[in-house]
Hints:
globular
Amino acid sequence: MNDSIKVGLALGSGSSRGWAHIGIIQALSEIGIEPDIVCGCSIGSVVGASYLAGNMDALEQWVCSLTQTELVKFFEFNLSLRGFVDGARLQTFFTKYICEENTQFNDLPKKFATVSTDLETGREIWFTEGQVLHSVWASISLPGLFPPIQNQGRWLVDGGLVNPVPVSVCRALGAEIVIAVNLNADIVGKHSIKRKRNEGEESDDIFSTIKKSMKNYSGLFFKRTNGKDSPPNLLDAIASSMNITQDRITRSRMAGEPPDILLSPKLAHIGLLEFHRAKEAIQEGKDCVKRMLSEIKYVMAAY
């Protein structure tokens, strides 16, 4: 490969499945691939920023130690809030494991960009300058979990609604080879299937853990129903809807903007909010690179 060829890494959205990005970056580094450009959407922006700020090892150590009990502390519920996530606690996490609050894009050693969505127009918004953490907040603001973020008079939400795998952003920033990570390749229907198998039993996933901490509201948001004709509860519906939306958008964007190398880790078994399953996701990220190793070497050698 020509050393002057610029390699872009597009880290896709996928909520808790995004810890697989850590394993992918590590595995690529082991075979000598260090991206010149990193673009992240949603959880991809979190890992991408941490990687470029030199904090990814600390991030990995922390997420691998995260328990379900610790995870639920990041959630709170109050009818006056605009989302489920405790913003103050998450901000502390960000400044410790992603980057310092005042870190600017031009402080990072490589080109970096994040993607978010304009809530009013539906347009995708790219961040390539300013405060890194502000752009990350805007990119991860999944409706229902996080409140929208205001920027220059616009309200911004999760970039996964418009560009889940930001191949186009990598190209725009000058990448000649784009390695894309699609976290949503095998997820449609998997969340619902998993829940049906456990019907009649108390689930041990994060939704049930949150339910236990919000007893006053659990009937509205977490009520379990029996029978195939019963509707899913609210968070099951949100999870399945996001699975479908991101899968369909990703397929459409990939058709028009294909990457040179596509990495699709198998993550259907990890739920939308199961951030405590980081070890599994990271390992699958590494395994995905190993499975694609011959293709990666072939494409890189062609340049």
